Amino acid sequence: MPRVSQDHLDARRRQILDGSRTCFARFGYEGATVRRLEEATGLSRGAIFHHFKDKESLFLALAEDDAARMADVVAEQGLVQVMRNLLDAPAGVEARALGADWLGTRLEVSRRLRTDHEFRDRWAQRSELLTAATRARLQWQHQSGNLRDDVDVDVLTAYLELVLEGLVSHLAMGLPAKHLGSVLDVVEESVRRHRGR
C-alpha cells in the first residue's frame, strides 16, 4: 500500500479545518452534526476523525488555528489590524479565517466558555497565544517609543482584548458597522504615545 505524503496529510487537515469552520459558523457547535461536517468538508466521517479524535478536538483545533492566524497578524500589524480585518473581510479562505466564519467560531467559543467547564479548561491552554502576541507587540511598540508610557502594557493588552470582544458582539448582533473603522482609529490613537507628552 503506498504511503501518504505529509503534504497530502497537511492538505487534508486544512480541507477539514476550512470546511468545518464554515459548518460551525453556520450551525453552531451543537448543530454541526457529523453529517453536516461531512457535507461541509466533502469528506467521510472516517477521513475527518482520522485527523481529529472527536468533534470537540476538531473544534478546538479550529479555534486554535484561528488564534494562531490572528497571532500572526498581531505580531506584524497589531490587534487593531485583526479588528480591521473583521470589518473588511472580502471573499476567500484566508479572509474568512478572520471574517464572518471566524466570527462564528469566536462566538461559539465564547458560548462554550460560559456553559462547558471542561471546554473552558482545555481552551485556557490555547487562549494565551493571542494575549502573548498582543503583549509582545505592545512591548515592542513601547521599546520603539511609539506606545504611551503612562499605562502598563498588561492594562493596554486587556483594553485591546476588551475592544475586540465588544466588536465581536457588535458584529454578531448585526448592528451597523458604518463608523467602526473610525472607532478603531480612535482606539489605535488611544494607545499611541504622543510626542508632546
From TrEMBL:
Gene3D superfamilies: Tetracycline Repressor, domain 2. It holds the Pfam family TetR_N. PANTHER family: HTH-TYPE TRANSCRIPTIONAL REPRESSOR NEMR (PTHR47506:SF6), TRANSCRIPTIONAL REGULATORY PROTEIN (PTHR47506). It comes from the Bacteria. Residues 10-70 form the HTH tetR-type domain. SUPFAM superfamilies: Homeodomain-like, Tetracyclin repressor-like, C-terminal domain. It comes from Saccharopolyspora dendranthemae. This is TetR family transcriptional regulator. Residues 33-52 bind DNA. GO terms for molecular function: DNA binding. Keywords: DNA-binding, Transcription, Transcription regulation.
